[in-house]
Amino acid sequence: MVRYRGPRIKIIKKLGELPGLTRKAIKKKNVNQKKETKASAYKIRLNEKQKLRYNYGITESQLLSYVKEARRRKGLTGFLLMQLLEMRLDNIIFRLGLAPTIPAARQIVNHGHVLINNKKVNIPSFQCRPKDIISFSSKSKTNNLLKINSSEPNHLTDKVSTSHLEFDKQSLTAKINNLVNRKDLRFKINDMLVIEYYSRLS
Predict the structure, then answer these.
(1) Chain segment 16-27, per-residue pLDDT in tens
(2) RNA-binding S4 domain spans which residues (predicted)?
(3) Residue 22 is part of which domain span?
């Protein structure tokens, strides 16, 4: 399944707020509208899986690979899955406030603006690790877009702590202090329902 490139508002109307996909908010529904029928257990799990996929902008095959990797590691599979997604380079750029959405962050990475430990990395799915230093090419620094994004207030970013990240806005340099903790997850989702969804398929 390819990455979704259609109308984003359509997705958040169906699945709810997805801070990584778009800044747009859904208008409150009319109170007089008919109540939705109760969803089946399968649909509830499917929707949680879809939320995860659309928010982080990954394909079905990518998400399945992350689930398999989380299962191989020791610990809570659901949290390990979230940790893998949160430590993606495109998500880190988004969390630093350097892009309004994860797709925008992915574009910054794809265009070769990002350096990890002084080496160019243009792979959005790159897994950042503790002690990694994120910086930007000299050409990128002359482009004011990054500085504008970092100086703009982002209510979605400000709501959640990012103790695993350290960022110097003046030099546009970031450090990964640690792997993301549960309390630092900005995207609230029932990750175990996602694991259960894939367990039923295997």
Answers:
(1) 888 888 776 666
(2) 87-157
(3) 8-28+37-85+187-201
